[in-house]
TrEMBL record, chain A:
It comes from Siphonobacter aquaeclarae. This is Starch-binding associating with outer membrane. Keywords: Cell outer membrane, Membrane, Signal. CDD domains: SusD. Residues 21-223 form the SusD-like N-terminal domain. PROSITE patterns: PROKAR_LIPOPROTEIN (PS51257).
TrEMBL record, chain B:
InterPro entries: Beta-barrel_TonB_sf, CarboxyPept-like_regulatory, Plug_dom, Plug_dom_sf, TonB-dep_OMP_SusC/RagA, TonB-dep_OMP_SusC/RagA_CS, TonB-dep_rcpt-like. This is TonB-linked outer membrane protein, SusC/RagA family. GO terms for cellular component: cell outer membrane. The keyword Transport applies. Keywords: Cell outer membrane, Membrane, Transmembrane, Transmembrane beta strand, Transport. It is found in: Cell outer membrane. Residues 116-239 form the TonB-dependent receptor plug domain.
């Protein structure tokens, strides 16, 4: 403060000497780039920033993706709490390039990629005592970038491929890169991760990807690219990492107490009650004004994001996953309430009155996903092999509460085609409310035919990609639109 | 006649004085000064060529020592100055004529004053009498309709609510375009968005409401480059100079003014009653949600508007003591203003005090102070959609809430929310239970000293401070929807801002022969700092402590602290020169260095020049015998605008957080794309004006034509999100404003019955010329769940505030060939749109400009009548030719049955009612933004009408009063408009340049009847 009064005194005495110091901006509460990216701590903070956008729930995980990957499928529908007409348009397949939910997801994915790019550009110039750590941090940024581009390329096809920080306004209008080039970058980023990420996860590092997380995502990338041998190999390699495995109980897997577990290979981290906005938000999918609270009033859910009755009914008798994926009654201590099926998988009873503060992690890659990826790859290469049955049946046995082989549960004797359908169904039951369904339907080429068969009259072949947001095309003349959407 | 006295020889001095005084012995001259009606108090009486002077008493009498051959000069505001030779008389009664022309007035021009007749720039003056015609809560409201080229728009009608003022249009897309206010020499940019501390929700309060408007004696509006260039990098939007009341020579004079009134809403919006709403619900759902028996039992149901509106009192008390002698002048005032809002539980109070003091310490040194302290206390009302679901404001809730429901349910608790789909909180509960308070304290003071170095050369220095402390408190208890799911949520914020200013000027004035010169040079430095602290918590055990004890919440959110500062150093120069009192020249320059700009561009220079020719001094005009005054003015100059937040040129980082290992980690990532070359934007303005006074002052007027071009606009250019950012700030693009202004005033009748009329009209045309690399700027989504996206699009060649949307074309009827239309998926009863590009389908390319928020013209008109002691005045203002996006109507005309609708929805399309205006009932809330949501915003308003009576002086003397006036005023008595919302003047987006003319569930306008008294003793 005193420094700022000196010029006042100068002014008083009418000395009109240099006022350069007086006019220099030295913000007290704003970090500026010139003071940052100097130390290892700064490098870690840059990586934290790259993670941050991932758990902005309404933007990316879970709901940003949910509205594009669960809602427009047979898994979900608009509940009574949906007020936004763009959400209805997503469900109905009537959306055009102007849709605030598509825009929100698109922008959040790029915002997070930009934060990863900054870290990747700045960290190399910071000196570390331990080069391994430096490479680990770089690998984390590349992992995040790879994961986000994997989402972008599956949702939108060709997308601008930006891999450096934007520091000037000179050249901002990046054109759409071919999807194959985007995949190339994704593979490169994950491959770097396979070598440089931490090998093992510890309680203190939960949330950071491991080498196996990169390998596992590579398996999924190759599966999407229909490069089945590579998908098989990567899945197998990842499945072989002994620190991971199936969690014994599907129900308990999603209990808040087990938020860090051996099955979540990579999960978005949330924590309630920290006052930092990192809690898991449950308001949009819990029932509205139905479940009585002991302190008076009712649970203030919104019933906006709800499953379809058909999905609920599709579960076979004995499948324990149904009553973890949904619930139709609940007693919060003031009497039981019953209601239509609502999502239940991510439910933290401790946050029943503070719905934005759930203490739950949201899985991006689970061990069971790798098992089904492995089974799918094997089946595509040479039909259902014993290894393929072994993989899918592991998932089924856990689902039905069986500890070993069980003829009533195990699949056997399927053709390549029926096995393919079985994997798709299994994925639906296994990953309800985990933002997989639309990707799975598109990957297997079933989206349009399946939704038509279930009564959707508006879906067209071009709906396997979402439109590039109109705003982006208005701003950047280099961007083209996906086929089928108004140009 | 006076002869210079030789200094240093007292004997000779005395002898000479005696000698010279012989023909005129000193004596006492007495008399009474009056006008044709009354005796005149407060008239200055001065012995010419001396320092001796006095002022007339309350009864108009004076007494002064003067030589028998002295000449006495009588002068007072509103009267022609008269010189009377004593001629040996000791009793001198003087009759002063009211001044017919105001061209001899002295006006404040920034760092000085000037005779109005000598002005070369375009300046509108608003006198105290004009300014205070309408009782106003803040000074900006006093400008409405008063000056050509000045448009005042209300951003909220809530007590203490803000306005947005444009002088000759908006100069910029993104940069603040409010004028600079200079209050007794202290410059204040009225940025309402940063005036608050952030905790409260709803429309911003008015930062200027902390300045008591009752203290103001004159307002000057500097409009062209010549006048405003003296404020350099802050002058481009025009400058409003505020001068407060100073003491005058004479005995202490007390003024007590008070008024008390009652306000009520000017209109309610017609809505569906409970029965009609139930029928709509059934229609929209396509099934009987309510049985016929239920519907029959509903009746009219709850009128939520009636429950949240009330008749509300407003009161103002002002006591002023002022006076002085030859060496000391002072004015001291106290004010209390209390306005309750017409929405329950809203209101605004102000306590303020002012002390203006000036002391002539020696013949050369004068010093003094202008100091005001004020405290305001507001209960703000959130009226519109606010943050999101469950936090809708009181007005939108009252309009949307189901009329079938009651305020309280059968168990006596508040009905929590609307039960028909869209969650809306109970409007009455929200109004009564939500805490949304703001308390502000302000000290604005300047100490100044003026030293006369030699005759004609003055040095003035001043030091001023402006300190504003604001504390805001928000608490939503669990009994209302906004606090329900979070179990109570509270926020407290505190903002302290402090600005200091030092200014030093040298002024030299000299008349030699036919040349007259005033030169000014100066240096000024200003520093501003603002500190902000915000804390919030939720999850309270009960609602007893709320925001007063955030620590008792179970979830304490990360606190925010923030400081920002800026500095400005300036070098000022001005020369006023006149030759033969006919040819006038003004040259002005100001160099400003601002911390807000990039390292490469700290300093800017803003020059202007103007010339004026007093044609009325020329013989060929004098011979016409028509003009008392006729003056032609031409000016050109470049002035700047620096109204962006600090630190925009830096590469800033924002803090973020993530969970690793179940612990919170903090991170940083860039928050903008830096720009080291950032600088001010520049507006070049040319103005040509004509001032005239005709037929012995029977018609006075001013005409101005101007052209302004803003270049290097501080423009937030949209960039693709693949950069990680939505936009980046650059100096790019240009925009023009051009316009015409006319003001006329005329004493139409001048006898016993007087009638003065004045009118001003302004027309401004704005056009965006260039947006640099982008072809258009999108403005995003407005209006919450209605999801109106990009209703305004900015494109070169088009005015700034253009609404861009579809063109509606009635409703599809049952027999129409819908399958063959451009909307093949529509059904009968859906709205039809025009296929503008004729490609056989309706998509985004069928949108066009469907209306503009900028009016074709606007203005004001005043009529004053007086007869004996009675006065009647009426002031009107109008806006013509603008379009309003009526967001309230867009919401209320949707026949979804998920919330209440307007009474128009009774005429919705049904197979048996082939309406062509309101579509069929449907749960679908989606609609295309079209001209169906736009309305003509033209209006003419009787802003105020006042009937006053001056009590006769002879009565008053008996009770010791010198003057007294009683009056009744009606405010906002009538508005002629086709606009269907509460108030066509409202503008929900505050001071924003782009989103203007958007009305969404605003605080309704109040009509006020008040009675007042003005006493002087």
């Amino acid at each position: 403060m005193t420094k700022k009064f000196i010029p006042a005194l100068l002014a008083l005495s009418l000395l009109t000497t240099s006022c350069q110091d007086f006019l220099k901006e030295s913000p007290d509460s704003l970090m500026v780039e010139g003071n940052f990216y100097k130390t290892e701590a700064d490098a870690e903070a840059a990586i934290t920033a790259a993670y941050d956008v991932l758990n902005n729930q309404w933007d990316i995980y879970y709901r940003g993706i949910y509205l594009l990957a669960e809602l427009p499928t047979d898994n979900a529908e608009c509940g009574q709490g949906v007020a936004n007409s763009y959400i209805f348009a997503l469900k109905d397949y009537t959306t055009g390039p102007v849709n605030d939910r598509i825009y929100t997801l698109y922008t959040a994915l790029y915002k997070a990629i930009a934060n990863a790019n900054v870290a990747l550009d700045k960290i190399p110039a910071i000196s570390f005592t331990d080069e391994t750590k430096k490479n680990r941090l770089l690998a984390e940024a590349r992992f995040i970038r790879g994961l986000l581009y994997f989402n972008l390329v599956r949702l939108f096809g060709d997308v601008p491929l930006v891999v450096h920080q934007t520091t000037s306004l000179g050249d901002v209008n990046a054109p759409r890169a071919k999807a194959e080039d985007v995949y190339k970058q994704i593979v490169e980023d994950f491959t770097f991760g396979e070598k440089n990420l931490d090998a093992t996860a510890t309680a203190a590092t939960a949330g950071r990807p491991t080498r196996t997380a990169a390998t596992g995502l590579l398996a999924k990338v190759y599966l999407t690219l229909k490069d089945y041998p590579n998908a098989r190999d990567k899945a197998k390699a990842a499945l072989g990492d002994a620190q991971y495995g199936l969690f014994a109980s599907y129900f308990d897997l999603f209990a808040p107490a087990n938020k860090i577990n051996k099955e979540f290979i990579f999960a978005i981290q949330n924590k309630g009650g920290t006052g930092t906005g990192n809690g898991f938000g449950m308001a949009l999918y819990l029932p509205r004004a139905t479940i009585a609270l002991p302190g008076g009033g009712t649970v203030a859910g919104n019933s906006a994001d709800v499953p379809t009755q058909e999905f609920y009914d599709s579960f076979k008798a004995g499948d324990l996953r149904r009553d973890r994926t949904f619930f139709t009654k609940y007693d919060a201590g003031a009497g039981a309430a019953t209601f239509r099926p609502h999502w239940y998988k991510f439910f933290d009873p401790a946050a029943i009155t503070t719905l934005g503060e759930g203490n739950l992690n949201y899985p991006v890659l689970r061990y069971s996903d790798l098992l089904l990826t492995y089974a799918e790859a094997l089946n595509e290469i040479g039909g259902p092999t014993a290894d393929a049955y072994q993989a899918i049946n592991q998932v089924r046995r856990r689902a039905y509460g069986k500890s070993g082989a069980d003829a009533a549960v195990d699949l056997a004797g399927l053709s390549q085609s029926t096995f393919r359908d079985a994997v798709l169904d299994e994925r639906r039951w296994e990953f309800g409310f985990e933002d997989h369904r639309w990707f799975d339907l598109v990957r297997t080429g079933k989206l349009v035919s399946l939704l038509r068969a279930k009564g959707n009259t508006r879906i067209q072949d071009y709906h396997t990609l979402f439109p590039i947001p109109q705003r982006e095309r208005d701003v950047n003349p280099n961007l083209t639109q996906n086929p089928g959407y108004p140009n | 006649m006076h002869t210079p006295l030789p200094a240093g020889r007292p004997a000779w001095w005395l002898i000479a004085l005696l000698f010279l005084s012989v023909p005129g012995f000193a004596q006492t001259i007495r008399g009474t000064v009056s006008s044709d009606q009354h005796t005149l108090p407060g008239i200055s009486v001065r012995v010419k060529n001396t320092n001796r002077g006095t002022v007339t008493q309350p009864d108009g009498r004076y007494e002064i020592q003067a030589s028998s051959d002295a000449v006495l000069v009588f002068s007072g505001v509103g009267y022609q100055t008269q010189e009377v030779s004593a001629g040996g008389r000791t009793l001198l009664d003087v009759l002063l004529a009211a001044s017919t022309s105001d061209l001899n007035e002295v006006v404040v021009i920034g760092y000085g004053t000037q005779k109005k007749s000598d002005l070369t720039g375009s300046i509108s003056s608003i006198s105290e009498a004009q300014f205070k015609r309408v009782p106003i809560a803040s000074l900006d409201n006093g400008l409405r309709g008063r000056a050509a080229g000045v448009q005042v728009t209300t951003t909220s009608n809530q007590p203490g609510g803000a306005t947005s003022i444009r002088i000759r249009g908006s100069n910029s897309v993104n940069t603040g375009s409010e004028p600079l206010y200079v209050i007794d020499g202290f410059p204040v940019y009225n940025d309402n968005s940063s005036a608050g501390a952030g905790a409260t929700v709803g429309p911003k309060l008015n930062a200027l409401s902390l300045i008591n408007p009752n203290d103001i004696v004159s307002v000057e509006v500097l409009k062209d480059a010549s006048a405003a260039a003296i404020y350099g990098a802050r002058g481009a939007n025009g400058v409003v100079l505020i001068t407060t009341k100073k003491g005058k020579e004479g005995p202490t004079q007390f003024d007590f003014n008070a008024y008390y009134g009652v306000q009520s809403v000017t209109k309610k919006l017609p809505l569906l009653n409970a029965t009609e709403f139930a029928q709509l619900v059934n229609d929209a759902n396509g099934k009987a949600v309510y049985t016929p028996d239920q519907i029959a039992s509903f009746g009219k149901g709850t009128d939520w508007q009636n429950l949240i509106f009330r008749d509300a009192p407003v009161a103002n008390y002002q006591l002023t003591a002022s006076g002085g002698d030859v060496k000391t002048k002072y004015s001291l005032s106290l004010n209390y203003f209390d306005q309750k809002g017409v929405i329950i539980n809203s209101g605004f109070k102000r306590y303020s005090a002012r002390f203006n003091f000036e002391k002539k310490a020696t013949d050369r040194l004068t010093f003094g102070t202008n100091l005001t302290v004020a405290s305001t206390n507001a209960n703000q009302a959130l009226t519109n959609t606010g943050g999101g679901e469950g936090t809708q404001g009181v007005v939108v809730s009252a309009l949307d809430f189901s009329p079938i429901l009651n305020v309280r349910n059968s168990s006596g608790a508040y009905t929590l929310e609307n039960d028909r789909g869209i969650p809306i909180g109970n409007p009455v509960a929200t109004a009564l239970e939500l805490t949304n308070k703001s308390v502000s304290n302000r000290v604005l003071g300047t100490l100044f000293a003026n030293y006369k170095i030699i005759d004609g050369l003055d040095f003035r220095t001043s030091v001023g401070v402006d300190v504003i402390n604001t504390r805001e408190k928000y608490y939503a208890p669990r009994t209302i929807l906004a606090g329900y799911s979070l179990q109570g949520v509270g926020t407290v914020s505190s903002a302290n801002s402090a600005s200091w200013l030092n200014e030093n000027t040298l002024t030299y004035s000299k008349t030699f022969g036919q040349h007259s010169l005033t030169a000014l040079a100066g240096f000024s430095a200003q520093h501003f700092q603002r500190n902000l602290v915000t804390s919030s918590a939720s999850g309270f055990v009960n609602d007893l402590l709320g925001a007063d004890n955030l620590g008792s919440g179970s979830i304490i959110n990360t606190p925010t602290t923030n400081t920002l500062d800026w500095s400005l150093v300036s070098y000022i120069g001005r020369i006023n020169y006149s030759f033969r009192n006919r040819y006038l020249v003004t040259l002005t320059g100001r160099a400003d260095g601002s911390s807000k700009f990039g390292d490469n561009n700290k300093y800017g220079f803003f020059p202007s020049g103007s010339v004026a020719w007093k044609l009325s001094e020329e013989d060929f005009i004098k011979n016409l015998n028509a003009f008392d005054e006729l003056k032609l003015r031409v000016s050109y100059g470049k002035i700047g605008n620096q109204e962006i937040s600090p630190y925009q040129s830096l590469a800033g980082l924002s803090n973020m957080s993530y969970i690793i290992g179940d612990k919170v980690y903090k991170g940083f990532a860039p928050s903008n794309i830096p720009n080291k070359d950032l600088k001010w934007e520049t507006t070049a303005q040319t103005d040509v004006g004509l001032d005239f006074s005709l037929f012995n002052g029977r018609l006075n007027g001013t005409i101005d034509a101007y052209y302004k071009k803003t270049t290097d606009m501080l423009l937030w250019i949209n960039v693709p999100w693949s950069t990680g950012f939505a936009s980046a700030i650059r100096n790019i693009g240009s925009m023009e404003n051009k316009g015409l202004e006319l003001s006329l005033s005329a004493p139409i009748l001048t006898g016993d019955f007087k009638w003065n009329a004045s009118v001003n009209i302004s027309a401004n045309r704005n056009k965006v010329l260039d947006l640099g690399p982008v072809s258009q700027i999108l403005t995003g989504e407005i209006n919450g769940y209605l999801k109106i996206s990009d209703p305004v699009i900015i494109r070169p060649g088009v005015a700034l505030n253009g609404f861009y949307g579809y063109v509606s074309d009635g409703i599809f009827q049952s027999g129409d060939n819908i399958a063959g239309s451009a909307q093949p998926t529509a059904v009968a009863g859906d709205r039809r749109y025009k296929d503008i590009n004729g490609d056989g389908k309706i998509d985004a390319s069928d949108r066009k400009y469907i209306g503009f928020a900028q009016p074709k013209h606007y203005g004001g008109m005043t009529h004053d009548f007086s007869y004996k002691g009675f006065e009647l005045s009426a002031t009107f203002n109008w806006v013509y030719g603008n379009t309003i996006l009526n967001g309230t109507r867009a919401d209320l005309d949707l026949p979804t049955g998920q919330k209440n609708s307007s009474a128009r929805v009774k005429d919705r399309w049904t197979p048996t009612n082939p309406s062509n205006t309101i579509p069929r009932a449907s749960l679908n809330r989606a609609f295309l933004f079209s001209d169906a949501q736009l309305e003509d915003g033209s209006y003419l308003r009787l802003g105020a009408a006042t009937l006053g009576y001056h009590l006769p002086t002879n009565w008053l003397k008996q009770v010791g009063l010198s003057s007294a006036k009683i009056y009744v005023t009606g405010q906002n008595l009538w508005t002629w408009t086709n606009y269907t919302g509460y108030d066509p003047e409202t503008n929900q987006s505050g001071q924003n340049n782009i989103l203007r003319g958007i009305d969404s569930d605003a605080y309704p306008l109040a009509k006020t009847w008040l009675a007042g008294i003005q006493i002087r003793f």
